[in-house]
């Protein structure tokens, strides 16, 4: 896939465009959105040299913004030597084509910019395939002359049907590539499920949050050997990293660092990264990491909650963890937040503040999911006894006549399987009797 940006080429200059609609979308809020868009552009490798906000209730179907504003921006682009124009909203294929012709430069919308960043950040083969799939599905309806190079991926014979135009050939090649990527990702997902089958007996915790909230830094603090990539950039982490975390209750949990969320996260990305986000769905509970120093952290919290709902999280087993308290200078504000979010934890991953309290909270939460049971069975029932030893923690063991008496503690998930084994044994015994 071609990308517009690369850390190895000269940085481009960008003009940002936002549209406000007072009172539903006031200009001040749009300016905040453009601040985030500027951070995205910087992460992708572009320097923002100007920004424009237009007040407009209804989007123009041909230009998105008004035709007069297009003419005005054309002069700005030409005079300022702008390399690309980035819109904070999604553009239709028609709007994008019209604007590119008017500005005579590259035009991106927010979704395409995020896709480009993901393409740059992707390191593993799975992440690269997921990003490429998202890019192809997004660009398929936008095909123009961009994709003529795809016809060179295969030999010329048999790649073009009678009367078929070049654009139709390109669409067919893209669809074939999409089908192939989906099949490969499905195979990888099945392979991952097989490799992680042994984790079923261990409690699982996933770190979720808005991008750049400090999840990877916190992961490295809690699990020093994690080696999670952490940088003050958006989407520094694309691949899920899972490590063991030892707790005071003599238990081990699996802690997973996941891809960050963002406002208007492209639907194609959510769908393509669904297999990666399975760690979130399979987790016993989530740690929602929040950048408390960000002025719009409450809106970011809403974005994360909505994204979790979108990927299928239907429970409230979530602990709010306000990170970067060391960057919050207003002590009164911090005191107010503690009162407003009494169940939340306030930490600094960078400085290691209050991390013991976080571990205690994880221990308490995990401890609630373990329950103690007793069983008395004949010593000859070695299969059941062995299964209990394998999937539970045996706290006490005693003998009476030919029976063995076990006191064990197990995770709620494992208790269901143990109880099923016990019932199956009792049924088989009753049939024999």
Count of helical segments?
14
Q: Please report the total strand number as a whole number.
A: 13
Sheet-strand content, in percent, reads 15-25%
CATH structural fold name of the largest domain: Rossmann fold
Distance between the termini: 69 Å
SS-based class: alpha/beta
Classified in CATH, the superfamily of the largest domain is P-loop containing nucleotide triphosphate hydrolases
**Widest beta sheet: strand line-up:** 6-7-5-8-9-10
- Computed Rg: 27 Å
CATH class of the largest domain: Alpha Beta
Rounded average pLDDT:
83
Point out poorly predicted stretches: 1-8, 145-163
Tell me the overall shape. Answer: elongated
**Major β-sheet annotation:** 6 strands, mixed
| CATH architecture assignment of the largest domain | 3-Layer(aba) Sandwich
What share of the residues lie within helices?
Answer: 40-55%
Topology as a string of helices (H) and strands (E): EHEHEHEHHHEHEEHHEHEHEHEHEEH
How many domain regions? 4
Q: What features would you describe in this structure?
A:
This protein has four domains: 106 residues, GTPase HflX, N-terminal domain (Rossmann fold), CATH 3.40.50; 74 residues; 168 residues, P-loop containing nucleotide triphosphate hydrolases (Rossmann fold, 3-Layer(aba) Sandwich), CATH 3.40.50.300; 62 residues, no CATH class. Helix content is 43%, strand content 20%. α1 runs parallel beside α4. It is α/β, with parallel strands linked by helices. It is elongated and about 95 Å long. The N terminus is likely disordered. Strands 6-7-5-8-9-10 form a six-stranded mixed beta sheet, sandwiched between helices. A four-stranded parallel beta sheet has the order 2-1-3-4, sandwiched between helices. The chain has 14 helices and 13 strands.
């Amino acid at each position: 896939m071609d990308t517009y940006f690369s850390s190895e080429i000269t940085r481009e200059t960008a003009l940002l465009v936002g549209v406000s609609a007072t009172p539903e979308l006031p200009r001040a809020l749009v300016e905040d959105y453009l601040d985030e868009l500027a951070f995205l552009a910087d992460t992708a490798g572009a320097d923002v040299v100007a920004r424009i906000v237009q007040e407009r209730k209804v989007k123009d179907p041909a230009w998105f913004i008004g035709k007069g504003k297009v003419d005005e921006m054309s002069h700005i682009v030409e005079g300022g030597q702008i390399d690309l124009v980035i819109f904070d909203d999604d553009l239709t294929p028609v709007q994008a084509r019209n604007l590119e012709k008017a500005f005579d430069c590259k035009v991106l919308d927010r979704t395409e910019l995020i896709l480009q960043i993901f393409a740059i950040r992707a390191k593993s083969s799975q992440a690269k395939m997921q990003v490429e799939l998202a890019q192809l599905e997004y660009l398929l309806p936008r095909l123009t002359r961009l994709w003529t190079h795809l016809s060179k991926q295969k030999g010329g014979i048999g790649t073009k049907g009678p009367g078929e135009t070049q654009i139709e050939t390109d669409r067919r090649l893209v669809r074939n590539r999409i089908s192939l990527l989906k099949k490969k990702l499905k195979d990888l997902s099945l392979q991952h499920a097989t490799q992680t089958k042994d984790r079923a007996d261990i409690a699982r915790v996933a770190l979720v949050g808005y991008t750049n909230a400090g999840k990877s830094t916190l992961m490295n603090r809690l699990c020093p050997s994690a080696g999670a990539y952490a940088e003050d950039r958006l989407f520094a982490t694309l691949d899920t990293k899972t490590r063991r975390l030892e707790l005071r209750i003599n238990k081990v949990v699996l802690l997973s660092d996941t891809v960050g969320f963002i406002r208007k996260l492209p639907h194609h990305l959510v769908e393509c990264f669904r297999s990666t986000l399975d760690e979130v769905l399979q987790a016993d509970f989530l740690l929602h990491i929040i950048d408390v120093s960000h002025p719009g952290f409450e809106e970011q919290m809403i974005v994360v909650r909505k994204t979790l709902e979108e990927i299928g999280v239907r429970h409230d087993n979530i602990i709010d963890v306000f990170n970067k308290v060391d960057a919050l200078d207003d002590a009164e504000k911090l005191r107010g937040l503690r009162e407003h979010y009494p169940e939340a934890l306030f930490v600094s991953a960078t400085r290691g503040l209050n991390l013991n309290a976080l571990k205690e909270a994880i221990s308490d939460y995990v401890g609630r999911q373990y329950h103690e049971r007793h069983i008395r069975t004949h010593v000859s029932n070695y299969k059941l006894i062995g299964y209990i030893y394998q999937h539970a923690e045996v706290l006490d063991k005693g003998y009476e006549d030919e029976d063995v008496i076990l006191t064990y503690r197990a995770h709620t998930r494992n208790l269901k399987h143990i109880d099923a084994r016990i019932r199956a044994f009792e049924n088989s015994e009753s049939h024999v009797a």
